[in-house]
Design goal:
It contains 16 helices and 18 strands. The chain is an alpha+beta fold. The strands form four sheets. Strands 2, 4, 5, 7, 10 and 12 form a six-stranded antiparallel beta sheet that branches. Strands 13-1-14-15-18 form a five-stranded parallel beta sheet, sandwiched between helices. A five-stranded antiparallel beta sheet has the order 3-6-11-8-9, with no helix packed on it.
Amino acid sequence: MTSSSPFAERRPRLARTAAVAIAIASCAARPTSERASTIGQAAPYGHDRTALDRALVAARRPVDASTAEASVDASATEAGVAAASEPYAPELRVALRDEAAGEEPSSGEDATTGATSTVSIEDASGSLDRAYSAMAESLRRARGARFTVVVLGDSHTESDEFTSRLRRRLGAAFGSAGRGFVAPAGGARDVRRTFAGPWTIERAPLRNPSGAYGVGLARAIARDRAATVEIEPCARCESRDVSRFIVYFRRQSGGGSIEARVDGGPWERQSTALAPTQGPVGFLVSSTQEGHHTLTVRPAGDGPIELHGVALERDGNGATVDSAGTVGAQATHLDAADWTVLGPELSARNPSLVVLWFGTNESANRRLAPARVEQAITSLVARVRAAVPRASILVLGPPDLALRDGAGGYAQPAQQLTILDAIRRGARSSNAAYFDLLSAMGGPGTVVSWVARTPPLAYRDHVHYRPAGYDALSGLLLDAIARGYEGWAQRAARRPAAERSMTEAASAPDRSRDR
């Protein structure tokens, strides 16, 4: 394999971490899991868990640093991937699957490896080409190249268990661009978020989510100067360094001033009062020398403020993953949100890729018509595309779940597969990419075996996954993304150089809004 690859310098690290993806201790407590109650039965569905079984077994074997590099090269060769010059890196799949933080397992969880499958991303329209182009820029360390992923979804996203693993693996492959967006409520790993004083913290009500809640569907409201919130990245995490904090707030009539300071330094102030020439979303940017820092935010005391979140970023190249999920959410809920606020905040994140991950709560809702789900996905993709027209959109199918049956056991929901097909149709009709995570993990019935494993990969509610389970699911998605990237890179390499540069320039994410 040629040494021109950007991953050549990372091989010693790959050798230390090959086949191991370990859960890192959370800086915040795990949120309470939502409960499902619908009873149903699904038809048999053929599947093969052999690849996942092999991966999980391999994760528990000791890694020999002297042979790991050879195994990395062999895996790429066996896949039939020819070595390519920059920016096309054939080791990307291995790096995304095997790179992980070298930390101790949390809460007694055993380590697992990123699993692989033969299920590919469905992308007949080339929706992911722009994301692949951004990945290529990041791999070759192009100036200002950033690969930002925003995941919008339900409790699987809200816990930040799944997205934190995407964050670490992408950061290991491309370099970290910072911890990313942190909402006022919900799960938040790799970061400490401490509210003190008289704050009112609200989550968007799912029955009527049309209020001004922003991209995280949460807001923190205060007017008393004694109300403070501190945001600090995990001191041992790869995304520990910050050079810029971006405070997201809503402008409103009669709004007071918001203040922020870094590490006890001078307070910076900005009014949140709505002016005729301004939109409803405001930002306060606090820049500092890159390093480990703590941001403190408070009202100035001259009126109410509405805080929607804080983004922690680094200057330069790299990747980051924003987690924006709500327990119990369905695609219809996000579609009904106030996009005059959510849209500008999503646009400000300037993502290369937006992932929409719904379907679990839809599958458990026997009264929900599949046609309504398809329409919601189509509408939601259109809203995202209007907010971030240069971003790629990937609709991620739900993982497996099982609900209580009348005999005291668990069975698949009756409409699990029809809901999945509705989500797929919505993605196809709106020219978004789609990945069938259920098939990749083994199909209906897989969650029952994951609960029964020692150690288990899913909780006994048969809906939510343990850290090791989300680790395996993230490996499946990233492996599919990396295989899609390899195909795109090979096609791009065969095109004439002039045509390739024009296409990449047209598909590259908009950097004009980068701060």
